[in-house]
Amino acid sequence: MDAQVVTMGVRHIGGDVAVVDIKGEVTAACEPVLMSAYEEAGGPGTSRLVLNFAGLEYMNSGGIGMLVTLLVRANRQRQQLAAYGLSDHYREIFELTRLDEAITIYDDEASALVGAAT
Amino acid sequence: MTEATGPERVRSAEQIELSVREAAAGVVPRNDAGRWAAKVDRLDVVQRDGVRGTNVAGRRLTGPVQGFGKMWQKTYRLAVGTAVTPEQAITTWKAHFPEFWPAGNRFAGALTGISPGDVALLDLAIGGGVKLSTGVFVLYADEESFTLMTPQGHMFAGWITFSAEGGPDGTVVQAQVLMRANDPLYELGMMFGGHRKEDVFWAETLTALGRYLGAPDLAVSTRTVCVDSSRQWRNASNVWHNSMVRSMLQTLAAPVTALRRRRG
């Protein structure tokens, strides 16, 4: 099987917003990476967590399941979850799985940061 | 609202990286195109022999976000030995999926097996001579896994992923459910025996698959995790679509319905 690599860099913006830049493959196998990134990004001061999928190369159904788990954790902390950078293909997958009803999708980072509808 | 002018700090040095397997030079990126079903808003149904085929047409898909009850992740695993590769195990599972189901339950899928976008019709034995008629949607399928997603009215809102992976002791097949009970009635049912029934169902399914694949030992391991102990009361009205209630009413009304059809 091919090697699988994912990186998730965390940027803190404005004190209460954090962006997680996801690069590579999102599968169930990368759950420890995502949860570590969440630990770093989703501290008590964070009210909004933004996932940047511009570097997403591959995602299977295990990856979607992992995002649901992340959503549960964020909801527990009363944090909003948003996403941007999704290609048309991945945006359709969010819509198909109805994940877009809980994770708001934006066209770009600026909109995602302020929560402006697009 | 936060006015964002730019990142206060970029923590590239603190980026978290995981190489799940050794990164090798020249790795060909994987492509998931064609593995996911195309987007659908509501399900279309092709009637199939041997099942009632009700409670599916026109329904929307439901994931854990749309469900009502506590959220569970249940994982059932069985080692099938070294004679079968993960790809072979999944090919077999896809091709013979209905044959591995416990007796009394029926899965009517496409003749071609399991492909993204297929809708399969189910009749599930719930006791008292009543069959629960519902369906599932093939959300995703590749060489090593496939995932089914449930429609409105199904017992649970979520998906179940069937997969196989290789290891030092051979291939392990797995069924993993990520779900919430779809409405308050189903949640009660899950609390009073439903979870146990589901565990038995998937253990029997894996046992049948393992027997077919020649597994040396048919012991299925089960791991249950409550991912979210809260209930989503905003989704309590899902009960309107409850396929169990509707199946019971359809069973009661069956003689009248048949008479009407005969009269034309």
Describe the structure.
The complex is a heterodimer of chains A (118) and B (264). With 118 residues, chain A is of the alpha/beta class. Helices cover 36% and strands 33% of the residues of chain A. Chain A has a single domain (6-114), classed as 2-Layer Sandwich (Transcription Regulator spoIIAA), CATH 3.30.750.24. Chain A has helices at 31-41, 61-76, 88-96, 109-114; strands at residues 5-13, 17-26, 48-59, 80-84, 104-106. A five-stranded mixed beta sheet of chain A has the order 1-2-3-4-5. In chain A, strand 3, helix 2 (61-76) and strand 4 form a beta-alpha-beta unit. Chain B has one domain (41-252): Alpha-D-Glucose-1,6-Bisphosphate, Chain A, domain 4 (2-Layer Sandwich), CATH 3.30.530.20. In chain B, strands 3, 4, 5, 6, 7, 8, 9, 10 and 11 form a nine-stranded antiparallel beta sheet that branches. Chain B has 264 residues and is an alpha+beta fold. Chain B has three helices and eleven strands. The longest helix of chain B has 30 residues, at 184-213. At the A-B interface, strand 1, strand 2, helix 1, strand 3 and helix 2 of A face strand 1, strand 2, strand 3, strand 8 and strand 9 of B. Strand 1 of chain A pairs antiparallel with strand 1 of chain B.
Number of helices of chain A: 4
Low-confidence sequence ranges of chain A? none
- Number of individual domains of chain B: 1
Shape of chain B: globular
Mean of pLDDT of chain B: 87
Number of strands of chain A: 5
Largest sheet of chain A: 5 strands, mixed
Structural category of chain B: alpha+beta
Outline the low-pLDDT stretches of chain B. Answer: 1-26
H-E order of chain A: EEHEHEHEH
Quaternary status = heterodimer
CATH architecture of chain A: 2-Layer Sandwich
Condensed summary:
With 118 residues, chain A is an alpha/beta fold.
Properties at a glance:
heterodimer; A: 118 residues; alpha/beta; Transcription Regulator spoIIAA; five-stranded mixed sheet; 4 helices; 36% helix; B: alpha+beta; Alpha-D-Glucose-1,6-Bisphosphate, Chain A, domain 4; 11 strands; disordered N terminus
